[in-house]
Amino acid sequence: MLERELIQRCMSDILSGKRISMSDALRLINTSKDSLEYLLDAANTIRREFNGDRVDVESLVNAKSGNCSENCAFCAQSAWNKARISKYPLLSVEELVARADAAKRSGARSFCIVCAWREPSSDEFEHVCSAVKAIRDKVGIDVNCSLGFLNARRAERLKALGVKRYNHNLESSKSFFSRICTTHTWLDRFNTAKLAKEHGLELCCGGIIGMGESVEQRLELAFEASMLEPEEFPINILVAREGTPLQGMNPVQVDDILRTIAVFRFIMPRCILKVAGGREMHLADKQSKALLSGANGIITNGYLTVNGNTAEQDIAMIRSLNLQV
Ligand code: SF4
């Protein structure tokens, strides 16, 4: 079958409620340069059909930075790595409220409290709960959390406090995971993501591309995450930080990033597909193209240890595409 016929057939299948197979996804992600625009347009059509024109704009706070016990090879915050970052303990409740307020005033629709640790101590968990409550009472913005491994009691507590979404990424496919982390397993991650969902929290569960995985493993990540039916899938593009084992990794080419976003949209037609860390660095002047290739979410005001666009810049970009915030 010709490439464009394949793209057309896969798009029609998705629009009529069918799922794409691994073999078709693999053929799509290997689309030639000649048919690339056709693939991106098809993914854009699927995005529009299932998600409309609103772009999910989220702002993060790195609420506790560095010295994490885990050895994730991509992460500047691992105590095992030597990346130069600002390290600090958990921010005060007042500071977190102020950051949430600033995020709301900048135009972000949601605010995610992210902490670099395997899991919080009891005191740390209580502190984050106090911050969630204060933000909900005083600021009025959707609050999301990314606090590492969860148990049922904590998931229930977060849900009761009104946390909207829990972020716990798979990071990579199951088959690649032991290459990037040995202090916990892919299944540990999968189980926490599943537990968040089972306790009524929306799930944000994505990963990173460009860590040395094969194209098949990149697709495996999307299919494996899709089993959890996440409300949101963030696609991070590796920022190969000096002082981490992945420093020096070749960057993913822009066309391959766009291909990946497009095919992930075929695999997860209904979720918020968010272009996350590495967007500004790797996509440069093609950032808006990502929002016309299947993506419908961004993180604004920078990332955990890397700066990014301001919300003002991002919102202007979204409006210039006739999309809404
Ligand atoms: S568990 Fe999270 S914060 Fe810790 S090293 Fe891994 S990715 Fe970084």
Task: Report on this structure.
- Pfam families: BATS, Radical_SAM.
- One of its GO terms (molecular function) is 4 iron, 4 sulfur cluster binding.
- The chain is an alpha/beta fold.
- It is built from 12 helices and 9 strands.
- A 9-stranded parallel beta sheet has the order 5-4-3-2-1-9-8-7-6.
- The longest helix is centred in the middle third of the chain and has 17 residues, at 122-138.
- It is globular and about 60 Å long.
- The termini are far apart.
- Bound molecules: iron/sulfur cluster (SF4).
- Secondary structure class reads alpha/beta
- In total, how many beta strands? 9
Radius of gyration: 19 Å
For the termini, the CA-CA separation is 39 Å
CATH topology: TIM Barrel
Total count of helical runs of at least 4 residues: 12
| Strand line-up in the sheet with most strands | 5-4-3-2-1-9-8-7-6
Give descriptors for this structure.
iron ion binding; 42% helix; alpha/beta; single chain; 325 residues; iron-sulfur; TIM Barrel; 9-stranded parallel sheet; 12 helices; binds iron/sulfur cluster; 2Fe-2S
Summarize this, please?
By secondary structure, the protein is of the alpha/beta class. It has helices at residues 3-15, 22-29, 36-51, 93-106, 122-138, 152-161, 186-198, 215-226, 254-267, 279-283, 287-290, 311-320; strands spanning 56-64, 110-115, 142-146, 165-167, 202-204, 207-209, 232-237, 272-275, 297-300. The chain has one domain: TIM Barrel (Alpha-Beta Barrel), CATH 3.20.20.70.
List the helices and strands and how they pair.
Layout (H helix, E strand, L loop, with lengths): L2 H13 L6 H8 L6 H16 L4 E9 L28 H14 L3 E6 L6 H17 L3 E5 L5 H10 L3 E3 L18 H13 L3 E3 L2 E3 L5 H12 L5 E6 L16 H14 L4 E4 L3 H5 L3 H4 L6 E4 L10 H10 L5
Parallel strand pairs: 1-2, 1-9, 2-3, 3-4, 4-5, 6-7, 7-8, 8-9
Helix pairs in contact: 1-3, 2-8, 3-9, 4-5, 5-6, 8-9
Bound molecules: iron/sulfur cluster.
Iron/sulfur cluster binds next to loops.
